[in-house]
Amino acid sequence: MAKAAPAKKASTPIEHVPIKVISVNRQAYHDYEVERTLEVGISLVGTEIKSIREGKVQLRGSYAMARKDEIWLENANIAAYEHGNRYNHDPMRTRKLLLHRREIDQLLTRVATKGLTLVPLKLYLKGGHAKIELGLCRGKKLYDKRAMIAKRDAQRDIERIVKGR
Question: What NCBIfam families does the entry give (predicted)?
């Protein structure tokens, strides 16, 4: 007796993959104006993913740069895993970011021609993999930062007055 082939599932829209945000680079949102964001993978070694799952990540002051047609994450601190052994990872090592060749070429031309910077904005877990939201950013001037702070303070005052009624 021949077995029947299993029925194929009807094509359904892509299911939502849960995302757990581990670290947000709030300093980058203050110092830079984000023009475009990109989700990129990150190449990890040893116990780095365990430290990330524990939330021991610091993105403040980190940036991405190109070397030999590859994008590398510099100055990001993923703390050493507490329960690791002598083969624990170096917390401040440079890490390779995983992008398609076409995306790398586009980013490199935009950075070279328009004076933009690649800054990691968020690190999160998506479907069991560590991902970084990389922003193509332009630096803010000091007066832009002051104007943003004044606008935020005025908005808080308005909300406080409306709430007090």
Answer: PRK05422.1, smpB
